[in-house]
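Researcher: Here's the sequence for the chain we discussed earlier.
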Amino acid sequence: MLNTHNVGGFKNNAVSACSISGSLAVSAAAPTPTSSTRTVTVPAGNSGKLDVTFLSGVSGSLQWRKNAGTWDDMEITTQKTFANGDSIQVRGTGMASLDTSSFDIKDHDTSTALEGGVLVQAT
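Model: Thanks. This is the structure I predict for it:
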């Protein structure tokens, strides 16, 4: 998707949004439902910054990581920078059975929603 945005006061018409190879939604066993690992595509000219916004949760917390690295807690809004071909994964921690948490993920450069209201559910 091609979007325009202001960079230093000048409109940049050549930046496309990042994409993710599949959904990060997950419904799996409590207390730690973990998504499949997905690949991030970062087009030329894009910084690769992804913004995650925590929306809601009943118990536990949500975490995300890049390239099977350290798990980081999702804050109200958290940002990570990805290179083309990097991986992304999310999980819930300390979730009780049948609890659900959700988050949004967007491309920082273009403000394009990559996934909205993504559900992490403990079964």
